From TrEMBL:
The lineage of its organism: Bacteria, Bacillati, Actinomycetota, Actinomycetes, Streptosporangiales. The keyword Hydrolase applies. This is allantoinase. GO terms for molecular function: allantoinase activity; cobalt ion binding; zinc ion binding. GO terms for cellular component: cytoplasm. Belongs to the metallo-dependent hydrolases superfamily. DHOase family. Class I DHOase subfamily. Belongs to the metallo-dependent hydrolases superfamily. Allantoinase family. Pathway: Nitrogen metabolism; (S)-allantoin degradation; allantoate from (S)-allantoin: step 1/1.
Length: 445
């Protein structure tokens, strides 16, 4: 028998904006979106009243690290944290796990590790590294949603960067598929070792020009190949004009930034607090304002976590050294609240947040039934209280380790209820997430 669900909200976040509406769900998919007083016979009816209903978020930039570095993070802990934060689909990055996802066999190993553990739906990026251009087609056939590469040392010898020529070759191999090449864009020629252990010296060692030069390289490769290109974790606000100009010229280019770049500023990072370290770095307040302007005018398309945890020992806490600490920020569970806390003060709406954090990442990853409350889409839904305030306590988060730069911060807005495929779920429930291929179909494994 078909399972049916009817949910009403006076503040439903639809693609066209926030409005009174109801959704009718059958067998995990949205069958109808109608007026608030829509009448359908359903197995379950939920009336949220004034509590907003958002599409489940899609986080297309998550480092789960399993297999091989499960002590950093794993599918069970990462997806439970995602669910608690209103993220109903994640896309796992190809590095930090061992083996790195640069071959079909490595993808199979990762899928085997994830199988049966995931509290939310999971898709997978492949990795583009020197010498594996011939693996791009087979990996696409095996179900990856696209490819990630670095133009600078990734910090892991098994995931080396591409040269300019290798980037062009890899993107040429990818072009016909329509799948994106997503790029960590920093130019190694513009990066130098930090002069000392302070945060200011670390920021100075990776200046905005490093991002600019690398993005120019990506734009050139996209123009040459005709492939879709995407800039991950944009930190330098001054690059927004370059990205906008490339888009206007017809280059198939998009860009994301991350909650930490939009929330923090370098001025507030205290000595030894390496929980703030990431690459590119959190820059100064004036740069943060430029990122918000770029997000508002569409130069930046989306906001995703770049959740990149490690063990506390690798951060060197409590008195970390910014020269040697592992770079990466843990925020998968917090992104929606972090962004809403700041966005609401700047005049943005929940519809803006849903576009940045659900619709765009779903489109990037080629998951057409994700990220929107619309007929035919998966019934991944989040009831969100936009007015409640709460204090972050790392020990209460569901990531594997409690290290987070948001420790003690007061955020506004918190996830109240979550439905995955039309079924209400909590992090304590048995995992029911699916493994997905590009296109949104189940991944064969």
């Amino acid at each position: 028998m078909s399972e049916t669900l009817l949910i009403r909200s006076r503040r439903m976040v639809l693609p066209g904006g926030v409005t009174e509406a109801a959704v009718f769900v059958r067998d995990g998919r949205i069958e109808e979106v109608g007026d608030y007083d829509l009448q359908r016979e359903a197995d379950r009816t939920v009336d949220l009243g004034d509590l907003p209903l958002l599409p489940g978020l899609v986080d297309s930039h998550v480092h789960v690290n399993e297999p091989g570095r499960t002590e950093w993070e794993g599918f069970a802990s990462a997806t439970r944290a995602a669910l608690a934060g209103g993220v109903t689909t994640i896309c796992d990055m190809p590095l930090n796990s061992s083996p790195a996802t640069t071959t079909v066999d490595a993808l199979r190993a990762k899928v085997a590790a994830a199988d049966g553990q995931c509290a939310v739906d999971v898709a997978f990026w492949g990795g583009a590294v020197p010498g594996n251009a011939e693996s791009i087609g087979p990996m696409l056939d095996a179900g990856v949603v696209g490819f990630k590469c670095f133009l600078i040392d990734s910090g892991l010898p098994e995931f080396p960067p591409l040269s300019r020529a290798e980037l062009r070759a890899a993107m040429k191999a990818l072009a016909a598929s329509g799948a994106p090449m997503i790029v960590h864009a920093e130019d190694p020629a513009e990066v130098r070792p930090p002069a000392g252990s302070s945060y200011g010296e670390f920021v100075a060692s990776r200046p905005p020009v490093a991002e600019r030069r690398a993005i120019e390289t990506v734009i050139s490769a996209a123009a040459f190949s005709g492939a879709r290109a995407h800039i991950v974790h944009l930190a330098a606000g001054e690059c927004a004009a370059l990205i906008s100009s490339a888009k206007a010229a017809g280059i198939d280019l998009s860009a994301e930034t991350c909650p930490h770049y939009l929330f923090f500023a370098a001025e507030e990072v205290q000595p030894g607090h390496t929980e703030f370290k990431c690459c590119p770095p959190v820059r100064y307040a004036v740069n943060r304002e430029a990122l918000w302007r770029a997000l508002g005018d569409g130069a930046i398309d989306g906001v995703v976590s770049d959740h990149s945890p490690c063990t506390p020992a690798l951060k060197g806490l409590p008195d970390g050294d910014f020269r040697t600490a592992w770079g990466g920020i843990s925020s998968l569970q917090l992104g929606l609240s972090v962004i809403w806390t700041v966005a609401r003060r700047r005049g943005f709406t929940l519809a803006d947040v849903a576009r940045w954090m659900a619709a765009f990442p779903a489109s990037l990853a080629g998951l057409p039934t994700k990220g929107r409350i619309a007929v035919g889409c998966d019934a991944d839904l989040v009831a969100f209280d936009p007015d409640v305030s709460w204090d972050v306590r790392g020990a209460e988060l569901l990531h594997r380790h409690p290290v987070t730069p948001y420790e003690g911060r007061t955020l506004t807005g918190r996830v109240s209820r979550v439905w995955l495929g039309g079924v209400e779920v909590t992090p304590a429930d048995p995992p029911r997430g699916r493994l997905l291929a590009r296109g949104g179909e189940p991944l064969e494994h």
